[in-house]
Write a structure and sequence with these properties.
alpha/beta; eight-stranded parallel β-sheet; three-stranded antiparallel β-sheet; binds N-carbamoyl-L-aspartate; binds zinc ion
Amino acid sequence: MVISLNEPLDMHLHLREGRMLDIVAPYSALTFSGALVMPNLVPPLTTKEAVLKYKSQIVEAGGNDKFVPYMTLFFRSDYTYEFLASVKEQIVAIKLYPAGITTNSEEGVSGFDIGELAPVLDAMSDLRIPLCIHGETDGFVMDREAEFIPIYRKIAENFPNLKIIMEHITTKEAVAALEDFDNLYATITLHHLYITLDDVAGGLLQPHLFCKPIAKRPEDRAALLEAALQAHPKVMFGSDSAPHPKETKEAPGCAAGVFTAPIALQALAQLFDNHGALDRLQTFVSDNARRIYGINPPKKEVLLEKSLYLVPEIYEATVVPMFAGQSLEWRVVGAQ
Ligand code: NCD
Ligand code: ZN
């Protein structure tokens, strides 16, 4: 059996810089038509010049003219209206991180004083720039996302014309919040559709499945699966593929992030197939994002065939993917 996907989109992707960018970018560029690129570099992307320079590095590293990096800016509460108006054409969204909550987020927001954030959020509303949020408090690790929901609600209520994307949701509470506000959307990763905390820490510790937000309970995964498999109109695929060198994953103080970009479509096809939902995959992996973000990615048809695919143990002796050394039931047989 062969299926075709048109213009697959990965609406949450970490591509890094330097050698890691060179290693990982071609995989996303091969099978995706575009990706929303995260700005948590060191230092974070906060200027137009830095965004443009990074974009050209991605295009060069990707080596595929049918792949668009949709750029984001790292949220700061001191951006001026004039600055945002001048950078608007270069970006598709602004990403807000709570300070210190994940990799390279130290310069993020502390306190969530809506009054302090209001000028920038008003400007973004006015300029129609969507706001992507890593929604976690600094509370107990399993409760961080659920504890953040009131903040999502407050922002959604106070800025009704601002499109807010709850990034990489992991809880049934976040899925439920989608129904309460017209301007609230979400991305769901591949790994949070497959794993729970048990897969990370229930047996021998699995550093390559350790990520932020941490995978949660079976009922949370079930809620995410239900939303993804029905291609809920407010939900998009965002892999949150977050490569780290093997030695920083297989170490005390393991870095957070699961590397899924090269195997994402294959594993999604397997999941949707196993749940009898292959007819919804196109909507989940492309159509919803096109509509929500109003983007028009380059034409690309990706063919997937139902036959065994052995996932590499490691890429370029550097980065270990999810499902390393295991077989997936679907493989990519064409992309053009
Ligand atoms: C991401 C990274 O490594 O940049 N890590 C992760 O666990 N997801 C950052 C993020 O999206 O939280
Ligand atoms: Zn991320």
